[in-house]
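Before surveying the methods themselves, it helps to consider a single example record, giving the amino acid sequence and C-alpha cells:
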Amino acid sequence: MESGAKATLDTRRRAAPNSGTGHRRMKNDAARIRADRESAERKTNIPAFIKFVREHQRPSFLEYGEYPYVSSDEIQKALRLKKAFSEMLDQMQ
C-alpha cells in the first residue's frame, strides 16, 4: 500500500510540469511570437497600419485646446518667429 501511494505521487510529480505551466508557457510564447510578427508587419506595411487605425478609430467625447481660437499652424509659425528672434538677439550680443 505504501509503495503504491508513493508511485502515484512520483507520477504526479513528473506529470505536473508538462500538464500545467508548460502548456501555458508554450501558448504564451506562441502569442508573443505572433504579436512580434504582427508588430513587425505594422512597421513595414504602412497601408495595412493605416487601414487598421482607421477601422479601429473611435469618436472622441472630449477635446481640449490650450489656445481655443488659434490654429496649430499659427502656433508653429509663432514658435518659428520666436526662435528666429532669439537667434537674431544672440547674434547681436
